[in-house]
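Please, structure for the following, as tokens.
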Amino acid sequence: MRLKNVLKTGVLLSAFLYNAPSFAQSAAPQAEDAGAIIVTGSRIRQSPLDQDKPIVTVDQEAIARTGLSSIADVLQRIPSAGGGLNTKVNNAGNIGGPPDGTGVSSGSAEIDLRYLGAKRTLILVDGMRYVNGSAAGGIPASVDLNSIPASMIERVEVLQSGASPLYGSDAVAGVVNIITKQSQKGLDLSAQFGTYEQGDGETYDLNASYGLQSDRVSIVFGGNYVKQQSVRTADRSISRFPNPGQTNCADPIGGCSGATPNGRFMIGDEDLTLIAPVSGRPTYPGDFKNFTSADRYNFAPENYLLTPSERYGGFLNAKFEFSDNVSLRTRLVYQHRSSTTQAAPLPLFVGPDAGNGNLLDTISIDATNPYNPFGFTLSSGANGEPATYSLIARRFVEGGPRIFSQDVDTFTMQSTLEGSFGVGDKTWYWDVNGMYGSNDAHQVFTGNLNAAKLAQALGPVAGCTGDCVPFNIFGGAGSITQAMLDYVTFDQKDRSTQELWDATANLSGELFDLPGGAVGFAVGYEHRNQRASYTPDPIITAGLGADVPTSPAAGSFNVDEVYGEIRIPLLADKPFFQKLELDGAVRHSNYSSFGSNTTFTVSGLWKPVSDLLLRGGYAESLRAPSIGEMYAGRSRTDQTINDPCTSANGGSFQTNATVRANCIANGVPADGSYDEPTGGQLGVFSSGSTNLKPETAKTWTAGMVYSPAWARNGFASALSLEVNYYNIRLKNAIDSVPATLTLRRCAFDADPVSCASISRTPSGLVAGIDATLQNLNAINTDGIDGSLIYRSKPVGEGTVGLTVNAAYLLSYDIKAPAELNAPTIKCAGTERCGSVDQAYPRFKATTTLDYSADAWGVSFTGRYISKVTESDGHVMGSTFYGDMQAYFSPAWLDHRTRLTIGVNNIFDKDPPACFTCDSANFDPTTYDVPGQFGYIRLSYKM
């Protein structure tokens, strides 16, 4: 409590000083001269001032200004980023995994550029690939950024353009290259504590690194520890019910669950529930009443808004110079993550209308069960006899909430032998690299139920022998005893693994001179081998679980690639041609999974004067099908989807004769008795396919950078204005037909393929929608990025800085194949136009104003997100977040020690309410958890 009081004092102080934690992006550094180095986006050494591709750099100062403890959270604030998975996503097995075979990456964090998905953004660490994350719920296709220790990050370079010719598969939207600390003198230490104003979500963040240097040896090692406590949905008004603004389950908006603690019993033509819990066997009909919407169960307050997690690990970077021309670099990384997601107690559905797709749908409850009040066997009809009941739904509150606990271990090691040699008057550079990475994830789900044991406990009492305990599904809340629980429940234990072997060899240098300078080249070879597996609990594999079902998966592939790059400086230091150069690259890949492919890129740079740089480029990109997409077994996702065939409000059965006829043909009762409320979740079954082809994309970019010398000679030490345009055309996108489209095409058009993909129970309920992966859509998107970077001349003891980064989304269109006869989905300016929560705002901007000196500094960061519209027409208004920060670094400590105090969301802005989101009534990929977040940090640099 004392630490929290200190923090509160600091928060008030920071507000008084009008300061803010800020996020900053920096373009190419401004200087009069810069040596030739390797920059992200090229294998040829060049000046970082003359980049022919759009790159954003996020350095340590920018990371520190955010007050965030995950590099993924920092990168997701880049305006060109679409967000991505993070610890605000409380998705474990409770609603299933994404319908693309990539599993449930609970506790993970990703970066998604251009809204194209994290699997289309390539993650590099020091220019080499990094092992993909493990989910313990499937096989992800992207890197978990929480597996990278923050203490080893020097900076992050984000290439905002397709780059497959240089880096291979996945670099469709761009490349995120995490540059680690290669050299350091002495100790670098920081400790931070943060909490929300409500007193929850406490975060502890410790980072330390130490560097040793001699003439020929440089060693940097360090560690990190991050602990994040939970924020519960019950503790924020936006998330206490399934829909925003809802105050009870009788609200016509729906959303509450039919699986209630007192049970729902659909026996014959009756739809019943208990009046109150009963000890022992209830009496029929005296203890029962008709089921109404008011009896539904509010599951919302038992989830997380912010999931708890704990991460710790360490790294070692070492460089040994054997001579002036040969050196060896080695990096070792280990990171452990423990994380938890939580859902409401298990909703147990039993009977032919349950839609589980397993034994639970066929259970009969014998007349001899001591708790059966109806006096006859409730038959499912599976034994050939007529069914006497359709559904029993019981919320398993005695078992407590469903808790999913993940333990993930990531280990990587990389070595590089590099050197240089002379060729005439030129210098050529060579390097040979080897990398191995592994990710091993284990998940324990506490609160699942064994369907085989339940069937025995509900069956003939004479057959319930041994440790079997007859089960009371009829008595309501509290009637399931501990002995009953012990018999039917189990801890589900799942595991997933990923492994990566990567070897590369590169040669670069200069060939000959042209009027504009020396022609540069780079050539190289890469061999990569990836393998992954997902092994669910044997009870789940047998189809006997009561929660979302999954299937095992395993697979691998290898690829051999060669590439070449050339840079041709045509002119330099001429009138109107301060610099003119062309660059091109080509890569040929041979995959064991689908065959060969060739991609290429060309780009150009023109500086008519030294202050103005114009550039443009064209790139072809490739994304090979991931292991999960190829080999994933059949798994279910529960999605928030409205069925047009329902007779309830929002359905079309009663108002549209065509829909009524088509729905009846699809298995909906003609009498209109199927009246499932809208706003609920339906099961979508997806699986991988080895017939998938690679995705391909064409990207055009054009941009300009204006860095006027007159400003640097006058009022500014740095001034740069940058504008970039991009246009991406992706085809063969791997996806499944949206379940909403399948339902609508069946209901409105009687499309035979769509209708065949829908399975219904005898009462009309959707038992499942097939969504096998295929090369399906084309995605076309274009937009404009802009940035302004200003730094003043000295003002007092420091300088004033202004950084503006903005992105405008002109279009984002998903075009289905012609045979689907589906309209183009226009996502720009909308929320959740796909199957996952994701906003596509037209305009996003981040602006930071700061004053920085050796002894103290203050800053304010504003983050703006324009309005988006949901599919139901609801407008989620524009959002502006304000972040503040101040630091103090006393001279008597040689400015080596710094105390930082900050508040994120200083104006206490709530996220806009989202009615169609699967998450807690807001989009966690785009918006902050409700509430102010204050933090205090103490750092020291030797």
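Confidence is low (pLDDT under 50) at residues 1-34. DSSP finds twelve helices and 45 strands in the chain.
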